[in-house]
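Changelog note: in this version the structure field was regenerated for every chain. One regenerated record is shown below for reference.
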Amino acid sequence: MSDYIVSARKYRPGTFASVVGQSHVTQTLKSAILMNQLAHAFLFSGPRGVGKTTCARILAKAINCLNLQEDGEPCNNCESCNAYNEGKSFNIHELDAASNNSVDDIRNLIEQTRYVPASGGRSVYIIDEVHMLSQAAFNAFLKTLEEPPPHVLFILATTEKHKILPTILSRCQKFDFRRIRVDDIAGHLEYISKEENVDYEYAALQQIALKADGALRDALSIYDQLVSYTSQKLTFEHVLENLNILDYEFYFRAVDMIQQQNHSQLLLDLDAIISKGFEAKDFIVGLTEHFRNLLICQSPETVKLLETSENVKQKYLEQSAQMPPTFLLNAFNLCAESERQTKIATHPRLAVELALVKLAHLASAIRVAQAPVAEKKNP
């Protein structure tokens, strides 16, 4: 039997300090533990794969730690911490509300809360995907959630906070988890690569982070898949090939052709992209995002919104400087409209080709539209 463990489990954080990208949550929890001002119920909400359940487990472990560190971290060495790490703790209980969402399931949980832990400490109940509870189950849970026994603490986790009853929300201390920044995910992947002796290109890690869309768990799943595919040698080209992503160079080249008003080459490039197995609509979606990135590079205040590597960021800045904001805004709108058309068009390729021809002659169209205005100002 294989001893292989996926990265999401092998490198799951065991302390607050090792949680990636959620310092606003972890610092508050540690302070509450040290000041002994813990609420009786917490609600952790946010996108998938950002650390909600992980933080719930660390909090539960810290509350019962027999040798709590001065900074509020669990020691991970005492009897209580070891019992939890080995899955043998009687003080920490986890319930998946997606499959245990009935009134009877909640009544069984409430019955369990009456028993004081034999080993001391507090009983912590982690209820994952709590929004999946039925209306009747929520109602049955209300009274216990508001006034639980003194030895009980509830931690509710959800990806869909808006589905939870306001009466439940009002009884919890709420923490909103953020999508994790691309650089933070890439940095964590770099740490794992060094630990696992994986040869990597940092641009490849950044591309994985971009694909994960703020979810570290998704990034780790993609990372494991690609490391297996590339035999421990992770390159940018391999990532693009395996994830079926168009290289950003296609978009830089497309904008160069648009500036040269070379619609023929644009159509030929689109055909070459389609021959590689991509859809025309995939290209226009990427080109829309490319023009968005060029737009935000027009102002020093918004450049920070560009999530990519430094060398690619420099290319965006250079290309953006060559075009006026009016042109970029019109190009962005044209691409966005074409993207909408491809969703309903019988022949999406024709819609994209029409958009490319319009883009190639957009500068001329803008000059013609502005000419009468200039004549009026200078009779």
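Spot check on this record: The longest helix spans residues 325-342. The longest strand covers residues 152-158.
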